[in-house]
Design goal:
Number of strands: 28
Strand content: 15-25%
Distance between the termini: 131 Å
Radius of gyration: 38 Å
Largest sheet: 6 strands, antiparallel
Length: about 800
Amino acid sequence: MKKRKIFGVLAIVIVLGIVAFCGTIFAIYSSQTLSVSKLENHSTSLLIYDKDDSLLEEESSFLQVKIYELPTHVPMAFVAVEDKNFYKHKGISMGRIVKAAFINVKAGRAKEGASTISQQLIKNTHLSHEKTMQRKIREASLAHKLERKYSKDGILEMYLNVVYFGNGIYGLGSAAQFYFSKPASELTMREAASLASMLKSPGSYCPITKYDRFSSRGVLVLGLMREQDIINSNEFEIARNEEMKITADKRPNSIAKSYRTATAAEAAKVLDLSASDLAAFGYKVYTYYDEEVQKAIIDTVTTHDYDIKTIKGKRADSVVIASSIDGEVRGFYTSHPSLINARRNFASAMKPLTVYAPAIELGVVSPSTFINDEPYAAGNFHPKNHDGKYRGPVSVRESLAKSHNVPAVKVLEYTGLDKSIEIAKRIGITSLGTAEQDENMSLALGNTAGGVSFNELVDGYSTLANEGTRTHSGLIRIIKNRNDKVVWQHRKGEKQAIGDDTAYLVTDMLQDAVKTGTAKKLDNLPFDVAAKTGTAERGGGQQTNTDAVCVAYTDNNVLIVWHGNASMKIEDDLAKGTTGGGKTTFVTKAILEKIESLKNHHHDKQNQVDNYIDYFDRFKIGIADNGVKTSFKRPASVGEFEFDLVDAKNGKLSLVNEMTPHNQRMRDVFANKFAPKITSSNFLSATPVTVDGKISDNGLPLVWFNTLPHQTYEIYKNNILQEVIKGKEGEYLYFDKNSKSNGTSEYYVTSRVTGSDQTYQSNNIKIMVDGKSNKNSKVIETKRKDTGRQWFF
């Protein structure tokens, strides 16, 4: 009795559950209204607005198709691959639902979709992108009502006019014109099948960027058409062997095309949608697009002298990004849609972010730390400089400006790979792996385990330009749904990633890269600019490069100009000798000069400092005063100090003392917290001097020795003072014009620090003069202190 009672209760619960479920479905079904206007007047392009909320120009006019104008093989190619039972079901295919459920359960994830063409049309025209059971019920309900109102051909026609084909193209008519330069009514069987094959993933089967995949999947669709008896064997063979001619990459583009494409990609990413859903769901995207900035980019890259699509007579892919220093991307250009989210090897352009900023942040080095540039190995990694030469002790400042590789590897090793990665991630290079499993010491040269995105590069350099504050860059300000409700907003996430002292010091060194280093083509601009170039080699013994990049920034803008090999096929490598410091930097200069001259920047340029840098006072290595207006403001956390060059070259930073010679002094900027505190003890005591001598050509005794400006020297002959020397530097020559024509004289020199009584005496030099013949004159050296060599002249 007890068991019967339990089963009875369970039965009642189940029945009530079924009734409630059915009631819910009926309620949802009854509440759904099919909108004729959404079906027949559906938006076929994503609405994108500029910084002033003005609608960006459309890329191309929408070309609507009428199904009765199409040859049978065109619409049936889409039926074959998307919904083979389209003409049999009533909007919902139970067979597809069961099959999809089985596959998904087996795979443990949502691998297979069950939507019919009718359901896809409803989803694209009526519903949001939320993934809920209620939305699926609404979709099925509206699909059923759609089937009751419209004919199958009518539904298929509407479907063909709303589906997405990548590159901002909606509808079959526009796709046929864009990819094949013909109306949809003239598509061949092979072309129609290939276009139908794209719907699964337009980006993955793009005929421009992934032609082989596009072509192969088109053959798959032809196979489905043959299996379903849409075409016969002969038609299949003819179509399979047909050659397709893609014309999309030859069509003229509006100046905003690249920006629109990148915006769509970013919107799809932040909303977790496919690109095809963006317009379908009626989203409105408001961007930072600045027409003047975009025009400056397009006008430059399409001018013959600056055309980066052709380098040294060879085609190259390209990307240009112009952003404010706080992450507002105002201009964007790419020759290749696949590059928008690409991960590349930016080579030495990564050094400021992954090597020098972390080392300076932790106080491991300063700009004036000297590193020995020499043959070196970090474990199994044997770095070499780009020219194969080694330069001995070089400063960190010079190492970064001139992109020496060995010092960069040493600095990374001093800092520690794990600590460098941690700080580089804070700066903006978030995709870096771990020191234990992914990255290695070649990170010093820009090599990363998975490549770096263009957005990360913008973020990293924006951090440097923005006084160490990290922001998340983006093209989009806000996104609204079709009801004008804000569904996403750009949150820059401003956060202090590194100290303002670190950001300033790296920026200061990168200005040297412009003056004397790899980015010197940017020199002579009427404003301060910091920059770094990078060149990635093919490797494996090849003499070609795959990537060339220049990143430049001011106090207003960050600009990236890249060109390289998008396909990574060796035959598409850059022309031999192409580097980041070549045409890429030439183009960077032209664009940067244009966008810096524009008015109404986001940052008030009235706040720029109007004084001029006095490079003589600052004594920056190898740089003379050029009268360039200062725009990078030095923070209070950075000071200027004069240090002892002798100690610096020996790995120790110390302040100069009053006796330090002029040529052993150097002035540079330091983070106050890591600035030298100890005063050098060099030059406070006299340095013993070594004297050499000979008989001159005219028969007079000649004595010479090296002098230092802080020492006083006295020359003695036969213990009688002959001459006093002060404030001299370098080799000093003494001719004894009072020498007798015959006889021997003994010479020596004393040295002491000026103002001190402590005196050192040199070795003695005896010179015998024979007035009759110079051949008989000779030098007799005694007590020579350094080498003990005998000298005869």
